[in-house]
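Researcher: Next sequence.
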Amino acid sequence: MPTILVVYHSGSGSTTRLVEEAVEGARSPEIAEATGVTVDVRVLLACDAVVGDVMTADGYLLATPENFGYMSGALKDFFDRTYYPCLDHTRGRPYGLLVKAGGGGTAAVDAVVPLASGLAWRPVVEPLVAAGDLTSDHLMAARELGSTLAGGMAAGLW
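Model: Next structure:
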C-alpha cells in the first residue's frame, strides 16, 4: 500500500482547509475501485514531521501559507531537519504542493521547489496556488490535486 505523507503548516486555517480537501481527494474510494490499491494518507504538521516519517512515505504533499513572500517558517524548519538525512534515500519520489497566498504565491512556490528538486523529488502535479480568499474553485482544485497524486501512485504511474 503506497503512503502519502502530507506535511503542512497553517496559521489562519485556510491552508488547513485546502489540506482537508486534498486529503479527501487522496482518500477517494474511486481510486481503490479503479486500481485495486488503497493509498494510505498520513497528515502531520510540519513541526511534528521527522526524518522517519519522510523515509517511510512513498510520496509527499506539502502545504504552506505564503508568509512574507516565502514558505512558512514551520515548513522551512521541516526541510532544515529532514533534508540531509533524507537526501540519498527519497530520490525520485512524487510530490505535490499547495500554497495559500494573500499575494501571488509564486515566491512561496519558488522557495519550496528548489528544496524538493534538491531532494530529487518528482513534481507530478502543478503547484496549486490559492490566492486571495478561499473559493469553491480552490477547494475543488485541492481535492483534484490530492486525487491525482494518490491515483497516480495507486496506478504505479509514479
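Model: The first helix runs from residue 14 to 26. The chain has one domain: 3-155.
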